[in-house]
Amino acid sequence: MKLLPARSIILLLAVLAVADCSSITDSSTTATGVAKFDGAYNFFFKYPSPSGTASRTLTRYLFISNGAVTSSDGLSSGSVDTFGSIRFQTPCPINSSTATWAGTMNASAQSGSNFGQGTYTCSIAIGGGSLDSWQATQTP
Q1: What is the pLDDT of residues 128-138, one digit of tens each?
Q2: Domain annotation for the chain: domains and CATH numbers
């Protein structure tokens, strides 16, 4: 039986240690994928009214967690993908139909400062056109 020199054994152990460390991740880095959008959001939207345009702000209304979109009233459901494309449904804000909200979420380099915007349509048309818009800003 031939014995390996001590240098060879140390080198072999070092290679094995490096190979085994490939599955270790650094949990201190910023969120990636859909998790980068996680948080609570203030929600602002416009809608047509008899006087022209009206708007409403709902504080801490929209919630995103691991790509799932929900709301504080429990009536919203949808998703956001890793590119920030968001789509969710709620009751229409001005009639008895369903509203489909779509847009883009943006991950800010500054923690807690994400934002998004888009448009919505109701299954019973409300005739607002470009007035049917929304914005979301992340809140602590």
Answers
A1: 666 799 999 99
A2: 33-139 (2.40.128)
CB 24 within 8 A of CB 12: no
Ramachandran quadrant class, 11 (left: phi over 0; alpha: psi -120 to 50; beta: rest): alpha
Q: 92 Cβ partners below 8 Å, 6+ apart?
A: 98, 99, 122, 123, 124, 126
Residue 99 tokens, joined: 């509203």
pTM of the model: 0.75
Does position 27 have pLDDT exceeding 80, yes or no?
A: no
Contacts of 81-87 with CB under 8 Å at 24 or more apart are 81/34, 82/33, 82/34, 84/37, 84/116, 86/116, 86/118
